[in-house]
Queue: 2 jobs
Job 1
Amino acid sequence: MKTMFVAFLAIAVISVGANLVLKQAGFSSQERTLGANVQLDN
């Protein structure tokens, strides 16, 4: 049972860490496809 809780904690830490890293790296679809000729509605 202890091993399962450690695995769940590891999944949570990896997920949060990956989310933060990808946000800093600019891998969102909006940032990838946004060009100079694109207008976005506010």
Job 2
Amino acid sequence: MKNAVAICCGGGPAPGMNTVVGSVAKIFLKNGWRVIGLHGGYSGLFTQETKMVDIDFLYADDIFNRGGSALKMSRFKPKDSDFDNNFNLDLFKDNNVKLLVTVGGDDTASTANRIAKFIKAKGYELKNIHVPKTIDNDLPLPDNTPTFGYQSALEAGVAIGNTVYEDARTSENWFVVSAMGRSAGHLAAGIGGASHFPMIVIPEMFNKTEITIDKIVNLVVSSMVKRKILGIDYGAAVVSEGVFHELSDEEIRNSGITFSYDDHGHPELGKVSKAHIFNEMIELKLKKLGIGIKSRPVEVGYEVRCVRPIGYDLVYCSLLGMGVFELYQNGDSGCMVYVNHAGKAQPLFLEDIQDADGKIPPRLVDIEGHGATTLIKNNLHFIEPADYDAARKFVQNPEELDFYKILEWQK
């Protein structure tokens, strides 16, 4: 029986999923392996009715440049009881699976290690290699290398951001955009920076103070008032959804928003429109201040997860897929594949990047770095002390809209 590699995709989709799967399949097929695609993420391993597909060259060649994921995905995270009662070990034994390739985020990687250790304890040797993906760009890859999917999602997000900003200019309105980013603000910062939005709000900006709803709202209103002073009657602000994750329980309760939670304990922000919520809060503040500005909400999230990968990710994901085979040949396991700027695949072992609790700390936007500080200083519009007198034409207390005071930053 041929050696087999099984491929499993967990979490949510990102541009380049199919490129990775297709590239892994092609290189292993070329070297005489059988390639098995598993549907349903990890849920497919904890049932006796696993849905799987034998991937041949024509299948791999058909999907590699498509958006979405041909292998159906899920956020299923197995409990200890699932391992004891439901794990389908025969799937691996009967199909001579020697390598499990997982594609996903940090939770998917950690679960892959649990599976490999569980199978080894049962007397069956299985190697596992993980391909890290997330449009959030928040996995700490060396040399600030992006996670696959981020560049394509950013490209699609910027297209939306530019169109929104053009509409703002044309209609002389404001737009409040919410962008995906559970732990870090890379996507929101990228969209706002590329589209020249006058306000960007991401979790990393609150490095000196606690995030509150009032502060989020005041940052956006600060930009609106500054543009009024400048005689500019339009604009757009982008707010990262990640600010919700940093709000205290009391702030969330006071917001009136009720969240449900996914299998990993994260608020299911996809079930609520963050843009709508932010926009409503901002409009209430504007009404309270007596400022006549109209704003519209725009959500940027699911719209960018399944777009076709751009050239960057097509090349990058191909190298990642082929890198899986290189790492396997070298005997590596329990690691993520990482491709450096020279295109060389290297192992990145989870134990080297996990914290004491076994979690991978997110890579945040370097808010004090030169790029971020340059954009903030020169691209954003906000109230500062020199604007107080002019701002009093629109608000009684411009100090509460002072950008640096809100964030407790030193100018």
